[in-house]
Amino acid sequence: EDTARQLRSAMETVVAKGTGTNAAIPGATVGAKTGTAQHGENNSETPYAWFTSYAKGADGKQVAVAVMVE
pTM of the entire structure? Predict the structure, then answer.
């Protein structure tokens, strides 16, 4: 549980102060992780990008989303 708590805290910081600030939802707890992956010979191709997020509203409803863009 301590590991999960640390991960949630880190992901919530991404939304509060980092690369995921556009994912903030007023009145909800939101955590996110952004990332890119280079590929192709000598990383010559356009990088893949992903965004993974979860949110919990004040009403207790929850959602998790993962998006990968090639």
Answer: 0.80
